Structures are given as structure tokens and as C-alpha cells.
Amino acid sequence: MPKAVVVGSGPNGLAAAVRLAQYGIDVTVLEAADRLGGGARTTEKLVAGTLHDECSAVHPTAVLSPYLRELRLDRYGLRWRHPEVMLAHPLDDGTCGVLRRSVDETAAGLPAGDGQRWRQAYGPLAANLEATASDLLGPLLRWPSHPVHTARFGLRAVPPAALTRLLWRSPVTQSLFLGVAAHVMHDLRAPMSSSVAAMLISAGHRFGWPVAEGGSQAITDALAALLRDLGGKTVTGTRIKRSSELPDADVVVLDTSPSAAARIFEGHLPGRVHRAYRRWRHGPAAFKVDFAVRGDVPWSNADCGVAGTVHLGGDPDEVIRTARDVRRGRMPDAPFVLVGQQYLADPSRSAGDVHPIWAYAHVPHGYNGDATAAIVDQIERFAPGFKDKIVAFSAKKPADLMRGNENYVGGNILTGANDPFQLVFRPRLTPHPYDTGIPGVYLCSAATPPGAGVHGMSGYHAAGRALRHLGLAPAVQ
Fold this sequence. Notes:
The protein is of the alpha/beta class.
């Protein structure tokens, strides 16, 4: 029986392990931390009974993922829970952009004239997303299975977000769009900075922005349970620093950053690959604060009170300016803040009337200051009285995030900068982005296509390459 070792137990590592095990391969997953999951972990902290997601919290790409849907993880207890409203983006004048699962309901709630253009922009993308998901959640350097639909998506993805926003006239609609685009964590004036918004908005309209019941850890637990049923093994507390520390295996799959892959296989990688991995750039960071609050957040706008996610970035110009400053290494006085209210869809995360609030700000790469007060002030700006609701809080600087997950270099939770080149050619210029140049060794982290998100597709594709190497299956890519 062939043997495989997977280094790293994030969703991509576990997905790769599951796919290999489905073909009868003896798989062992090695995880440096004391728990599986990478960015999909949940911790009970602050107040007994409150569940806080460590990083990834809302999962439009997980319910979009063709592979995760194929695995039927509901058999292992995974349950998706949807909030009444997916996203709200309030402005200082009390108005609010609201993203609902229905394209028509979202369009109807936008200011006059904008709704029809929103429907025209994202209705067709959402309608065809299930068919094009495999194309979009894979390498871009290949001929798509659905070229017309994929090209239509590209028309929405390629322009700078600062230009795309001009499709709409109202600051409400422009801010709603730009807040989603800001997930790219790059300058919104750059080409392809509309790409993440195109994906998340269309995925939301087709599948929603759900949370996992019991926390994101439930996704990890379901994948790990399936892997065990297939005969796979997981080992925690095992950090691999050099390839000599790896057990004997026919194939190795790395759910690591390119720089970690270069370190582990120092002296074995082809020169061109080693140089590319060392040149891989990491973008802006996150500064995360978990809150336990008594009662609901006192939002000025009622839609925010029923939204699973709230974007706090102000008007369109402010969102663009903040993204530019962070990309340039300047910490804004009022940073862009993402707030997760997962308990609204999943009350099991709360302890009585004490609820977990998940929040993080976009900050410069490697930022070493304390953004806690700036995050609290930004929430207070749109929810006066929030400070009085706080029972306890816990902050994590970029360095803390990296200690918890070595893929988050400099606190960059996307495992790489989303500049135009790296969005297309991740992690290097090649038609086979999962190959390291060493036969039998593959990379599957978020530094490979399709990038960040709990979708498992990077692991799926990397496992496909490994299976081809073993002569067991054709590679998907």
C-alpha cells in the first residue's frame, strides 16, 4: 500500500489527506499545534460556554466547494446555519447596505437605480456558479470547462474595485460592494481587486454565507472523522523543520507557506522553485479581538442587529483610502473592521445572555502596535454603547496569529499578498502550481489556487497531482 504524509491539518491538508485515503493510500497527517484545524478552529474562552472561532468564521466558499459537498460531511455532524441577513455595511448617516441571500431581495433594498444594476452584475454569476465552481476554484492557467460563464465572471473580477464601484450611484451600494472587495486585503485601485467580491457576492446569492454549528472546528472535526473512517491517521504536536524529519512516504503534501516548504526541502528543490518560494510575498495583516458581550450589540441600524457579518469601513472613499494606507504600511486611525455575530445563526455559541463577538481589523504587515482601542472605537462609532456591553475580551496581534498558525507570516491570514501577479500565478508561474519540482512532493496551502478560504480545493487538486504520480488517477490539475 502506498504511503502519504500530509504536513499541516488546515482544511486543505485534511482535504488532501481524505482524497488520498479514498484511493486506499495509507495517510498520516502531521500537525505542529496541539489541535487539528489550522484556520478552522474554535475555542471556548473568555466566559464559560462561549465559543470563539480562532480565524475563519463565515463559510461561503465551503458550501460552494464541489469537493466538500461531495464528501457529505453532514454524516459527521456538520450543520450549516444561516443568519437572517448575510452582511450589513452601515454608514455614518444611519443608512446601511444589506446583502441578502436573494439577489432580488438585495436589489430591492438598494437605493433607487442601483438595484437593477446589482441584479445584472451578480444575478447571472450566481445562477451559473454551481456549474463554474470547479473552474473558479482551481488554477487559472487552464482551459475552463465552461468558458462563457467563466469569462463572464472574469469581466466582474478583473477591474479594480475602485472602478467597479462606479456601476452604482449611491454611496450605500458602493460601500456594500467595496466592503466585500476589501477581503482581498490589497489596494482596491489595483487590477483584479474586484475578484474576491465577485466570488463572495455570487457565492452568497447562490449558497449563502453560513456558519458551522458549534464553530468552525466542526468542519475540521468532520473531515478528521471521515479521514479516520478511511484508515487515515493524525498526529498533533509534531513540527517538521527539515525533510529528514519526515516519515518514509511515497508522496508528501505540504499545507504550508511557500517559505516553509523552501525551508523543509532546502537543498532538494530545483533552483527556480526555491527562488520563487523565497520571493513569495505576504500582504497586510489582521489584528483580532474576541469579545464576550452581555446582550446584543446596540447597532444604530436595525439591519446590523440581524446580520451574521458587519463591515465597518465607512463611506466608499474611506474604504479605498484605508486599504491603500494599510497596503503602504500605514496604520489608519479608523481601520476597516469585520465583525462576526455567528451566535445569531448559531445560539449554541452563547452562554445565556452573554454572546461571543468575533472581530478583526486590517493592519499593516507585521504590525506590532495595539489596535484594540481602534477596533472598539470603530464598533462604538456604529453601535453607541457597545463598550458598556463588554464583559471580557482577548486580543491577538499579527505575531500572535503567526504563533498560532505558521502559515500566517507577519499576521497575513491569506497566506500571501493578493496582488495581481500572485492572484493569477500562485505560488509561481507554472501550469502545475501544486508541484514543487520534487517528484512526489506537492504544495496545497492557500498560497496555491484558488487561494484563501475553507474550501479544501487546494488540497483536492494537490492530491490529484499526487495520485497521478502514483499512477492511481488522472490529475484534475
